[in-house]
Every structure is written in structure tokens, then in C-alpha cells.
Amino acid sequence: MKEVSLLYCIPQNRLQSHFKNGRLSLQEAIYAHCVWVFVQHFLNRLGNEYNTLTSVLDTSNSVHAEVLSKLKKRLRNETFTADYILEIINQYPELIRSLYLAFANTHYVQTRGDTDDFLPTLSYLRMKVDRVLSDQELKELISKTAVNEHHEMVMTAFRVFNSAVLKTNFYTPTKVALSFRLNPDFLPQEEYPQPLYGMFLVISSEFRGFHLRFRDIARGGIRIVKSRSKEAYAINARSLFDENYNLANTQQRKNKDIPEGGSKGVVLLDIQHQDKTTVAFEKYIDSIMDLLLPPTSPGIKDPIVDLHGKEEILFMGPDENTADLVNWATEHARSRGAPWWKSFFTGKSPKLGGIPHDAYGMTTLSVREYVLGIYRKLNLDETQVRKLQTGGPDGDLGSNEILLGREKYCAIVDGSGVLVDPNGLNREELLRLAKERKMISNYDISSLSPQGYRVLVEETNITLPSGETVNNGTTFRNTFHLRESEQYDVFVPCGGRPESIDFSSASRLISKGKATIPYIVEGANLFITQEAKLRLEKAGCCVFKDASANKGGVTSSSLEVLASLSFDDATFLSHMCVQPDGTVPDFYTAYVKQVQAKIQENARLEFEAIWREFEETGVPRSILSDRLSMAITKMDEELQGTELWENVLLRRSVLSDALPRLLLDVIGLEKIMER
């Protein structure tokens, strides 16, 4: 059964040839396949020389910073490719067997007796016969066997993997994907200065994915990344872990207004399985749950070795390409007997007591407070502001930004292409698309002015009204936000890949030392790198970063979970769940309005604080945002280490002020504290 489920998880592993000719058992081959994936993300490719260079150069010098940025990207992209790593691993089947034996010796749980009637596998027989080497012996064996330094680095990563795995479902009889709970201490502090609390790696034939969190109790969304081409997939695969780490780190900073720390999950679909979004999500969630829930069905979910030794609960929410899947996750957690099923996922259907972010514009409400704050401070007429937006009317942020904004839209970029009209796009047509959640490919181009145009990603050799020829629609779409010839007053990224503007490309938004776009509010996570933000701010651009601007969604999620934990099951159903006939409880309607008001208040207060500090000190807003986040989260951690919680009067006073008034009125402080 265990071997069959391994084949189901990864039917075609990258060391299949060794399995076919008997050099490796099935378990050994799939183990090596998993480590191959691990090595791609965690082999330290920068080296000590890069760290030395970083300490010597002045990173505040734009020329030095650009050189370091390009060097880092080249070292990571070109030194150890996936194919090169696999080529090395394939040369050492004997080493793989010894390394697998050490892994199995730690995590294999024998659930059958020696006298039971079953056919032992090759790897099982080896476990009975071969001697398990210590880590020091494995280190010496690798050093003697590897033919050069590169080979030794790759095979040493197997030891790192073995040491990092705290628990895994590798030997669970039934599973849909392979999941590993890792100790993140192996990460180099120079590259990842903020230490992670927890790390999960999930591997399947359709995808690979991580879940990272900075605190034990942490909140963040799960996103699924798609790739349009093999080249795009290669880029996405190389940046997968760093993207996940940076997203979780941003989440940690933006969670300053709520009790939970920051987390994030990122799932990368394999290039051959771009249509398997739902399958990948379900496998990712179920395999992580294998490591969260105790086994209850012998022969189906057997006990696992748990070196972490503590109960873990993850709190997740919707993100790119997963908004429609969270209902399944909630129901699945309930079906597997998870006691925390109500709070496992947020943003779920109102019928399950959820508050969907997109339906109520929760994230956009905080982004809009920053946009409106700029207009208010500078006495700008919103209707006359020329606006560029990435992320179209089909998405959560993009659609709600269109619905709530009254600016003069001059350009919108989304997954389908680019839509431009210097005289302003037709507002009624944009509202129609936003309400129907359709891409700009559905825009009625008959409403464009003579200077307007649309270029779709699949189009080639298109002539623009200016006479310029667009050779490739996809390339035009991907780089449109960097075009020097366009003129906008405000740019609100509501979608797009991380690092769409980096230190180098930011120069294209600067002319004669002055930023060409005066105001940027970063709705999309990590759209602009920190170095690029500082470069733009130095050129006079007013930039408000993601960790401040788009924090509304996490506030909504936290308050949604608070309600689910505060009510018992019966009152939760009657107060927070929309009835099958569509009847919305009065409490639910009022609670959603209170959540929206809290999001706007928090955003407004932070905007005012950053604006005031910038006026008084001149410190870039992007740095002020981080300082504010770090100060609040540090204070939170320090308070947790005190005995203030034991002061009952203080505890009651703080909670009475912090908890939503509606919950206090309906449930009462005593009941909430008890639950």
C-alpha cells in the first residue's frame, strides 16, 4: 500500500531509470527525486565571495547596488540548474542508498509484525541488512566519493535535507502528495535575515509548493502560480522559495494590526499541468493535513515520527487562483475531523460563515485609503488624475479598485493584454467588466478614442495609433508599466508578478533624475523591490508599499476567525452563516460593516503616521513603513514575555477595547474569554 501511494504521488520520478534497472528501490528513487527538488531551492549558490563583496561595497550607492543585484541574479540562475543537479545525483546511486537508509531509519514506522504475510520491498530488506551510517560517517563517505566540489555540495544537501525533516507522510499508507515539515535553521542568515518558525515542503507530479510562517500562530493566503511557457516556468521555479519567503515576510509586517504572525503558501504548477489548479490545491492541503492531524484509521493513516513534538495549527486564506477553492478546504478539514475546521480557512462562502474578501472589497478598502490620502493631502481632484493599473477587472483588487475609484483610467494591464486610452477609458464599460469579473479582452474597443488601443498577449505585429509596431503581445504586456513614453499621475499595481520593478528597471521610470509617475500605491504584493522603491523615492516619487497599503484582507480574515472561535456551533450557524434560501443574518450584515470600518480606520491611521514622519524626518516612506511594522510586532513579542496577561483587570480592559462591539454585545466578554 505504501509503495502504491508513492507511485500515485509521483508516478514518473526523475530517477526512474535507476529503479527500472534495480540500482535503486522505488522508495529510494522517489526519496532522491524529493531531495532533487529540495536542492534546487536551497543549494547556497552565492558563496562566501558574494558575502565578502557585499560587505565591501556600499549598498546605498546606486551603482554598487545594481552590480550586486545583477550578480546575485546571475549566480542563482546559472550556477546550478535543475538539469545539472539531476545529472550529478544520477551518478551516485550507492550514496543515495546510504542517505536514504539514514532517512528511513529516522522516519519509518513498522506497523506490521515480522511474521505477517506480506512481500517485503527491496528498501525494507536493505533496512534489515545494511548498517545505518551516522551523519559524520555519511559526511566522510560523500567527501571520499564525490569527484569534485560541485558534486560534494549537491550530495551534502541530502544530509541537510535528512537533518531538516521533522515529520513526513512519506511512509503513510495513503496519501495524495508527499509533505515534509522542515526545521528552517539550515537557511543562511545572510540571505534570510528574519528566521522562520515553520516550513512545509509539498511535492507531487502536478506541482511543488511551500508553506512558510514566521510565528507559531500565523495567518496568510495560499497562492497558485501558473506559467505561460517553459521559460516562464524556469524563472518561477528558481524564484519560488524566495517569493514565498518574501511574501510571508511582507505578511508578517502587514499583520501588525492583528494578533497572528505572518505566513504564506505558494504552489507552482508543473509546466505540463497548468490546468490542474484544483487538483494541486486539494493535494497540497490534504498532504499538509497529514502532518497536522493525529492518525485515526490504522492501515489508512498510520502514526508518523514527529520530531517537532508540538501540536500545530495553520490558518490560511485565499490568494491568487485560490479564491474559489477555500470552501472545499473548509469542508475537507471538517470531514477529516479537524477540530479547527471553522477557522482553518478564511474568505470562504458566507454559507460557511466566511467573509469573502473580493465580495466586500476588504483588501481594496485599505489600498483606497492610501490613494485617497494622497489626494486629500495634496488637494488633487480625483476625477482628473490619470491612472495606470496592473491587475484587471477580472481580479479581486483590480475589479474593486475600478468599482471604488473615480480616476481617469488611461491604461489597464491584465493577464489578457494591455488596454490604453490617453483620453480616458470608458467608465461604464470598465464598470461592466468589473462587475462581471471579465478581462480587458472583453472590452468594447468601439468606445476607444482615435488615440486608444488594445494589444492582446497572443497578438503579433500590431501597429499602434502612434505608428509604433508591437512585435510580440506578451512581451509588450510584461513590460508596459516601464514604458517611458506614457504619462500617468498615479500607478496602482493590483496584480502582476513579484519584482516586476527591480532596482535596474526602476531607472526606466526616472527621467533627468525625476520620477515620471509621481504617486505609487503598491496594492500587489512585492510588485516593486525595496531597492527600487528607495530609488524611486529618491527621484521624488511618493511610494506607499504593500505591507502598509494592502493589509485590509488580513484584518478581515482575523476578525472572521475571531467570530468563529467566539460563537459555539449553534449560534455560529444562526449568526454568521447565510441560510440555504439566501437569508443573510442581521448580525452578519452588521459585522461585515464593522470589519470594513475597522480596515479603513487602521489604514487611515497608518497613512497619517507615515505621512507625518516623512514630513518631519525625510526618511523614505518605504523604510518608515518597515520601521512601524517592526516596532509594533517587536512590542507584541515583548508583551507576550511579560506577566501582564495575569493582571485580570488589565486583561479585561484591553479586550473590552480591542474586541468588536457586536461580539461583546451578543456573546459577552466572559464567554469570549472562556472560549
Automatic annotation (TrEMBL):
Coiled-coil segments: none
A GO MF label: glutamate dehydrogenase (NAD+) activity
Top-level taxon in the UniProt lineage: Eukaryota
Ranges for domain Glutamate/phenylalanine/leucine/valine/L-tryptophan dehydrogenase C-terminal: 354-618
GO cellular component: mitochondrion
Listed Gene3D superfamilies: NAD(P)-binding Rossmann-like Domain (3.40.50.720)
Record SMART domains: ELFV_dehydrog
Protein name from the UniProt record: Glutamate/phenylalanine/leucine/valine/L-tryptophan dehydrogenase C-terminal domain-containing protein
Species: Hortaea werneckii (Black yeast)
Lineage: Eukaryota, Fungi, Dikarya, Ascomycota, Pezizomycotina
